[in-house]
Structures are given as structure tokens and as C-alpha cells.
User: Fold this.
Amino acid sequence: MNAVIDTDAPSSPLRVAPHSTHKFKLLLRREFWEHKGGFFWAPIWAGAISLVLTLMALVVGEVSMRKAIASGGNMQVNGVDVSVNGLDLGMLTSKMDADSARNLAGGIDLASLTSSLWPMVVLGFVVFFFCLGSLYDERKDRSVLFWKSLPLSDRDTVLSKAASALLVAPTLAVAAAIASMFGFLALVSVFVLFHHGNPYALIWGPGSPLKVAVSMIALIPVYALWALPTVGWLMLCSAWARSKPFLWAILVPVFSGILISWFNLMNVFHLNDGWYWKNIVFRGLFSVFPGTWYASSSMQGAMSMKVDDPGDLANAIQIGKSWAVFGSAELWIGALAGAAMIYAAIRLRRWRDDN
Assistant:
């Protein structure tokens, strides 16, 4: 009996293994959704609190000035009587000379940077505790057994966590910082309009908000490389510690620094104890906080300049100068050390068994 083959029947679709980049994107999404509170909401709330405090300061200043005007035109600033005969910002603009305009532009850029600091400070804490629990928490709640049952390599899993800390979290924090900066400028513009001033002439024209925003975006690759030693160390402790990874991450470098200082061990290498505390302890624990690269020796030349007014100060802390750190051995040695510790964390995750 001959079998009849129906050639018109639909054939089953071919099963194609997903590309490795597709798996990596899914792992990044997993990290984002599991830590959405820290990566996404924490910088937004920090920026919102900054704007609320700015609004409160403007309201308090407005009320104080109106009380001073109502009581005869005198108010106290740091114990000094200041005469107030009404506040017309439009009149101030018309009588401003070139030096005053330059100082105003520097002051606005400095205030814009200050208003964006809160999300960036929160970023340091979010990345620190995310890395510390990244490989320990999945062993603690046994979810590592589920994830290891999937066709996902330890390399992709650990690298997705590192990329979340070094790229995803700072990108979201920078976006929140830029939104916070423009929110601050909008609040000040409303205040200027309320006092018969021109926001373009007083705020948006003299200041350089777009330049500041682009400089902040340019910080992301600097942060990714500078934070690598701290991210690598914290992930290594997270993969290695059976309990209390926070204590291990802090106590090992601090106690080693105390012993080295006690016995003057750095004298063997003709170095002082401060070198160890700055380049090992500080770099290993606090590099996840944005701006810590300004403390490096390679940045001292770029930052050394005469500061006489807010304009000079704004130029001195210009974020674009952070790219000077790319030319330092300090950055690349730390990045190599961080990459080596992340590789060790991958190996530890493969063989670690707490059962």
C-alpha cells in the first residue's frame, strides 16, 4: 500500500535559534524591569524634589521682598540692611554692562549645572547597590536556578548587568538631569516674567542650556570607563560573598589600607600611604559617583585656572573638560582592572554553589 503525501499541507515553520544580540537585549530589558524603581524613577524623583525646593526658595524670596517693601523698603541679607524700592528686572537688563552680562551668563550656567546635580548624585547610590546585589540576590532567592535552566550563558548574564550599571542607568540619569535643568530655567523664567523682565534677555540668551545639555550627554562614555573598577569590584564581591556582600566590599579595601598605613608597606615601592587610599580604596569604592574623575591627578592641569567671577567658575567646571581624562593612564588601568574583576565574576557565577 502506497502512502499518499499531501504536498499542499502547510509545513511547520523552521525553528531558528535567536541571535546572541537578541538574547542580550532581552537580558537588558530584564534588568530594567526588575530595577525600574532605581534606574528610572529614582532620578526622576530626585529632579522633582530639586524643582520643588527651587519653587519654595522663589516663593520665600518673593514673600520676603514684598514684606520688606511693605515695611518701608528695607530687608536684611546676612545681617546687613538692604534697601528695596520695588523689583523691576527689565530695568536691571537695560543698565547692565559687558562685565555684568558675562557674570550673569556664568551664574546662569552654574545654576543650571547645580539644578541638575540631584539625579546624578542618586545615580551613584543606585549603581553602587545594584552592583552589590546583582549576583548575590539571585542566589539568595534561588532564582539563579531558574535563570541557569534557560539557554543563557553566564557571560551574557553578567555582562548585561554590567552594561545596565555602566550605560543604561547613567543614560536615564542624564535624561532626568537635563529635564530637571530645563524645569529649573522655566521656573526662573516665570519669576522673571512676574517682575516685568524678559526671560530671553536675562535667562535663555546669556546662558547656554543646550551646550550644558550636550556636555552632560558627553559624560556618559567617561562615566562608563571611569566607574569600571568600582562596578567590577562590587560585582566580584556580589558573586563571591556567601552573605553580607556590603561588609566584604567595604571592609576588605578599608582594612587593607589601615594595615598598609600601619606598617608603611608602600615605602617598599617608594610611594606614600595616600597613593594607596586614593588609587585603590577611593577608586575601588567611589568611582560610580559622577564627577569623581575631577579628583584625578590628570585633571589637575585642565582644572587649574584663575577664578575671579561666576563666569570663570562655570568655565572651570565645564563638563566637556572631562574628556581630558581619556588621555590618562589612571583611567585605562582602572578600566582594565574592572574588566578583569568582571571576568572573575563570570567565572564565579558559573561555579558558585551555595547549597
